[in-house]
Amino acid sequence: MTSGAAKAAKNDEPHYTGHRDRLRARFLQGGADALADYELLELILFAAIPRRDVKPLAKTLLARFSGLPGLMNAEIHDLLQVNGISESTAATLKALTAASHRALKQELMRKPVLNSWTRLMEYCHATMAHEKREHFRILFLNKKNELMGDEIQTSGTVDQTSAYPREIMKRALELGATALILVHNHPSGDPRPSQADVEMTRAIQRAADPFSITIHDHIIISRHGYTSFKSEGLL
Description:
The model is unreliable at 5-10 (pLDDT under 50). By secondary structure, this protein is α+β, with helices and mostly antiparallel strands. The chain has 2 domains: 3-101, no CATH class; 112-228, Cytidine Deaminase, domain 2 (3-Layer(aba) Sandwich). The chain has helices spanning 3-12, 16-30, 37-48, 55-64, 68-72, 76-79, 87-108, 117-128, 165-175, 195-208, and strands spanning 135-141, 147-155, 179-185, 214-222, 225-228. Helix 9 packs across helix 10. The chain is elongated.
């Protein structure tokens, strides 16, 4: 190829080709801290959208979902409402979120969670804080207070879920659990417990007593933090 032809071929390359190369180089040299949130998101979108300038889309997504946490926990149908997001791209984003949550969970499994409280709260916040519906989660512990199970027991509306003490005890006995940590989220953003939350916790505690199953805590997760029933003297 002549120098003139080579120059012409280079000029035919999309304008974002060099940008992608530079962004990858910055990431490889400086890590995630070297990139803004929208640039980190661009790197993720590169794989799903190989032939398009994705910077505008990255900025649109962050604005639409109020940052990375809201984006990574967005529902598939909400992602698909954004112009430029295909099912394939939405699946890529959700797969990344699922992998992140699974990694956090695997770090906790079979470890004494009471000695890893910060990591436990990070996991609960990552998986629940930005949910639009309430979910009631049960963490099942063995005699060493090691996490042996993590299950969502019920899911409700935007502001209400119901826990069933008998079903919780049945599942705890099936797993051989000797202690539980109850966790649920408040989509409203307010982590303060309601009277219904307090009454539900007491009902579960009464159901657990005959089986000598300890309720270590009940945690309410929200976008703005969490509340521990134990720390508040409610357990």
